[in-house]
Automatic annotation (TrEMBL):
This is Uncharacterized protein. It comes from Coniosporium uncinatum.
Amino acid sequence: MPYSMLLMLPRRPDLTPEQFREHYENGHVPLINSLCEDPNLRPILYKRTYFVAELMGPSGYDCVTEMQFRDQEHFQRYAAVMQAPETKVKIEEDEGKFLKRDGVKMVIVDPVQ
């Protein structure tokens, strides 16, 4: 059974939505992929959806990222790689360039179509 998560990501207030997206797509995503060298450990889905309008008031977020893994064990193996001390430092350093890190939310979800 797939194991899915959503990350709600707010941008740093000093960045425009365009700057946020530019760094996420052309800086952060390539960095994340380079830090997980084994393509079999990477998520089977790494989808980013950027907000273009907020119709019912401000949400405080600029992007929702969906990550899906084959199962919980696949996620745990990926997380172990990404949480290794030297890797975690690189990720957090890069996140500081475009995210309001204390506003990031992550939830495990059960998608239904």
